[in-house]
Amino acid sequence: xxxxxxxxxxxxxxxxxxxxxxxxxxxxxxxxxxxxxxxxxxxxxxxxxxxxxxxxxxxxxxxxxxxxxxxxxxxxxxxxxxxxxxxxxxxxxxxxxxxxxxxxxxxxxxxxxxxxxxxxxxxxxxxxxxx
Length: 131
Hints:
Mean pLDDT: 78
Number of domains: 2
């Protein structure tokens, strides 16, 4: 993949029951500063390439979005996965969303993938995917 690529996000939300955002509408309105975790599936909707420069822009569309209630124990798992994948992609350590400093960890010397546990075997099982 070249450095001349970028991604935009389509403004359309998934249709029907694949759009779980209405389930948190009241919370978004009543507590607009609260951060919500969600599972999102997306794919390329369109790819445009500049014939002169070769720069490509993909437009991603949301296939499904399912918010995870803040009261769910899965929310912590989603936050951990976000931090772990961010660290793998960037090589930087992202702090938990509710923490300002890392205690007893030199972020420049620590492998980000080692800071949070890896998903267990339950993530390796084949699952029928309805999408």
